[in-house]
Amino acid sequence: MTPAEVANGVLAGRRRAIGRAISMAESLGPEGREVMRLLHPRAGTAMRVGITGSPGAGKSTLSAAIVRLLRERGLTVAIVSVDPTSPFTRGAVLGDRIRLGDHFLDEGVFIRSMASRGHLGGLAEATGDAMTILDAAGFDVVIVETVGAGQNEVEVQALTHTVVLVLMPGSGDAIQAIKAGVMEIPDVIVINKRDRPGADVLAGEVESALTLVPTDGWLPPVVLTQALDEQGVDDAWGAVERHRANLAASGLANARARDGMRRNLRSLALERLARDLVERA
C-alpha cells in the first residue's frame, strides 16, 4: 500500500490501514513521514488523555474500566500502551493489551502496544504520531498509557489535553512522586486501590503537596478509586471532563497544544540527532 492509500484507509476508519500507518510511523522512514503529512491536517477532534504512574499502580486496570465506561456512553476509544522494551527482542514485554482483552472484538475500540526502546520521557518515539493517526481515524477519545512515573515523563503533557497520574497507598513510589516534582505534571490524580490502608492519608498528603505547585487556575482534583471493581471510575472520568472544559473555557487549550507541539518536535529532533551520531560513530 502506498502512503496515500494508507492515509485514505485511516480516514475511512479501516483497522488494517490504521495498524499499517502506525507501523510506518514507527519505522521513522520516508513513507511514515508522508503518511503523517497527509494525516496531520485531518486530526484535532479527539480528546487526548495520558495515564501515567508507577508499575503496579493499576494504570491498565483503570484504562480498561474507563474504556468500558466510555463504550457504554457510545464513544469510540483508542489506546496506545507504551511498554518497556526487552533487551533481547526490542519488543514490548508487559503486554498491557492482555488486561484490555475484553475489548479486542469491539469495533469501537482500537488497542496498540508500542515499545519505548529506551526513549526518555516514558513514551515511545512514535507515540505522538500514533495518537495523531488514531485522532484522524475518527476515534472520540485517544488514551496513551505510559511507562512508570518520573521527572522525565513531562513529555506526556506535550501530547495530551489531560494527564492522569495514578498512585497507590503503601508505595514508596507515591512519596517519591511528591518529592520529585511529579505533582507539576498531572491534571487529575487518582489514588487507586482505595481499599488498602493509608489511602485517605495519601490523598491528604497529595492535596497538601498540590498547594505548593503553581497553577494556571486549575487545581488537580484527587479521586479515590478501586478500578478492579470499577468503583470511583465515574468520578475519575468526570474530573477529566471538567479539566477539558476548563481548558476550553479559559482559552488554554490552543496554547497547550502549541506548546506541546513545540516540545514534542524538539524532543524528536534531539532523539534523531542522537541516533544519527551513534550510527556514524
The major beta sheet can be summarized as: 7 strands, parallel
Biggest β-sheet: strands ordered side by side in the sheet: 3-2-4-1-5-6-7
Instruction: List unreliable stretches of 5+ residues.
Output: 85-96
Q: What is the CATH T-level topology of the largest domain?
A: Rossmann fold
Integer average pLDDT: 83
Q: Give me the secondary-structure category.
A: alpha/beta
N-to-C series of helices and strands: HHHEHEEHEEHEHEHH
Q: Which architecture name of the largest domain does CATH use?
A: 3-Layer(aba) Sandwich
Helix tally?
9
Sum up the structure in keywords.
281 residues, 7 strands, single chain, Rossmann fold, 2 domains, 7-stranded parallel beta sheet, alpha/beta
Helix/strand layout:
Layout: H1 3-11, H2 15-27, H3 30-39, E1 47-53, H4 59-72, E2 77-83, E3 109-115, H5 127-136, E4 141-145, E5 162-167, H6 172-179, E6 188-191, H7 199-210, E7 222-224, H8 233-250, H9 252-280
Parallel strand pairs: 1-4, 1-5, 2-3, 2-4, 5-6, 6-7
Outline of the structure:
The chain has helices spanning 3-11, 15-27, 30-39, 59-72, 127-136, 172-179, 199-210, 233-250, 252-280; strands spanning 47-53, 77-83, 109-115, 141-145, 162-167, 188-191, 222-224.
